[in-house]
Amino acid sequence: DRSSHELPRGSETQIDTTLDGEGIEAAIEGEKLLKRVRRGWMWNQFFLQEEYTGSDYQYIGKLQSDQDHGNGLVKYVLSGEGAGTIFVIDENNGDLHATRRLDREEKSFYILRATVVNKRTGQKLEPETEFTVKLHDINDNEPHFSKEVYTGSVPERSDIGTSVIQVTATDADDSMYGNSAKLVYSISQGHPYFSVDPNTGVIRTALGPGDMDREQREHYQVVIEAKDMAGQRGGLTGTTVVNITLTDVNDNPPRFTQSIYQFRVPESSKSGSPVGRIQATDRDIGRNAEMYFTIVSGDGMDMFDISADKDTQEGVITVSKPLDFEKKPSYTVEIQVQNTQVDPRFMSSGSKDMATVRIAVEDVDEPPLFDKASYLMEVKEDAAVGVAVGSVSAMDPDGARSMVKYSIDRRTDMDRVFNVHPGNGSVFLLRSLDREEAAWHNITVTATEYNNPRQSSHVPVYIRLLDINDNAPTFATTYETFVCEKTKAGQRIQTVSAIDADEPSTGHKFFFSLAPEVPHRSNFTVRDNGDNTAGILTRRASYSRLHQSVYLVPVVITDGDYPMQSTTGTLTVRVCTCDREGNMELCNAEALSSSPGLSTGALIAILLCAIILLMIVVLFTALKRQRKQEPLIISKEDVRDNVVSYNDEGGGEEDTQAFDIGALRHPDAAAALEESAKQRRDIIPTDTLVASRDNGDVREFINQRVLENDCNPTAPPYDSLATYAYEGAGSVAESLSSLGSASSEAEQDYHYLSDWGPRFRKLADLYGAEDSDFS
């Protein structure tokens, strides 16, 4: 019997019939010859509907093999995508089921493999065969637009049907199966301004140019629907929002906000000063609203300018030329405004607007006005003091015509060379001039109103000094001239030229000649070359430097200007020994000096010797004064580097070993002690010194020490301080020391302490009491 596998109802795929037993045997026999095994079963695919909602497993189909004889020895095995999880097979009868709900949009088909094995041995009875399970689509997905919100724009006043934007929607359902993914576009909001193509989703304008005006409405919101199932009932729908903006075109001309404008401007306003602003409006925006202004007529066309403020689109009127209230107090101009860019589709070239502007000039108190911007004056350099150089003139431009006074800004004439008459403006000299010192003088003259000194103006005055011939010519440089002992008459030994501080208008012309006082038989002569130079020539064939080593040649230099000026320059000519080529070899030493006497080297040598001798004398004197004296402090080091401190406390009245006061009482004995170099000062002398109550010897001793230190010429070179102080005598208490007492052990009477006054009352109470008071 022939066996086959079952398919689900509605399946459109035909399945090949499997082979029977005889066919299998024939195939085995053929395999030996052709090396090919033919399968016992074959199929291509199963079909399964997506989104199954039943509670049981969804039945897909049945697999059955020729090797299954119904005896339970055959086992069906399934492998591949989802085998065992999504798809299960009954291993006994080959029934294939889906275990869960499947979505074609997630995965549209699955590839599985099936085989038959022997339950007992596990051996495959047939080769593994691959088959496909495809999912049938249902309309379970609504269309989705690529954007939730679209943004589009279209120029205002566009023609009907102008494309704005295209929207696109997609459907996840199978477009190859039925109409589940066939979409149709429609507009649900946005009528009657826009329409949408049902197939392409292109949105277009639906009204004419007159109805799409940005100035009336600029923004629109359109809602577009996309419906599957080709728009039929039961189809699913998706929507999106499209925001459409009308872009501006230049369809409106600018208009002035008022027809007449009035402004006031002071007559003192400088060029470029603002007068006022005029405003024009344009319903368009951006570049379409840009405008420019022009002055087309009026009596102020040359006096004022107008420009557009790029930020505010206002017309700014400015002054272009100086204003004068006295000449013209008011102006009227016609101003035109128009767009910088005109769209010929909507406006003609005559889309302009006009306005009238009236400008009143305000009178202000102006400073005096000079009749020239600057003055140039000339004066000869030999002009006398008080001579007028020129004059300046200024006047008050106001109607009052106030008087004007003149003065010179002394910051421009620090030397006070010039002055100006305060009433008529005449400039005259205060000091003599010299063109050779300063050829030009630049001063500033100030004109000030008498009634209002704050109103003043300034003008530069340039004064040029005219040259006169007041300087004589001189040699151009200092010439070092020599003549060889062996030469020839008429030999040129020097060419001289001249300079002159003056500057004649025709140029310099100099004449050279020997001075008239030169003897007729002179040693040299002067030849004028006629080109402002002259040659010095010899008149002898030989000269002797032993006989005369230096010659002085006086040359008279005369200029050619009027009045003629001349000077005599002396040329020094040395006589030298020369070689055959005429080069100087040796000249007398006296000829090298400009004046007779000792040479410079000799003078320097004598000066050095005198300086050395003076230094020796000073050094000897200083060494002689450096006599060695007894140091103030016996130390191996410099006394200036030591500080000797005595911090030991005295022993009181009974301490007679610390210091010998007798040295102060008996100066003669102290002097004897000083002569003994080996005797220490802190040891009591052998002779008994009796202290005297007379203080005159102490004063004399101290005064003598002070005088010795003041008059000592061999004092140390470093600073030292010797202090001698004498308290003097006459104390009411006299001496309180016990050193002058005959015996410190004797009883003393302290009653005299009560006579010393209230300051010693406490001491008198302590020592003046009777012994019985303490018993």
From TrEMBL:
SUPFAM superfamilies listed in its UniProt record: Cadherin-like
Bilayer topology annotation: Single-pass type I membrane protein
Example of a GO biological process term: adherens junction organization
Highest taxon of the lineage: Eukaryota
One Pfam family linked to the record: CADH_Y-type_LIR
Annotated PROSITE patterns: CADHERIN_1, CADHERIN_2
One MF annotation (Gene Ontology) recorded for this entry: calcium ion binding
Keywords carried by this UniProt record: Calcium, Cell adhesion, Cell junction, Cell membrane, Glycoprotein, Membrane, Metal-binding, Repeat, Signal, Transmembrane, Transmembrane helix
Residues that span the membrane, as ranges: 602-623
Function of the molecule: Cadherins are calcium-dependent cell adhesion proteins.
Name listed for the protein in its UniProt record: Cadherin domain-containing protein
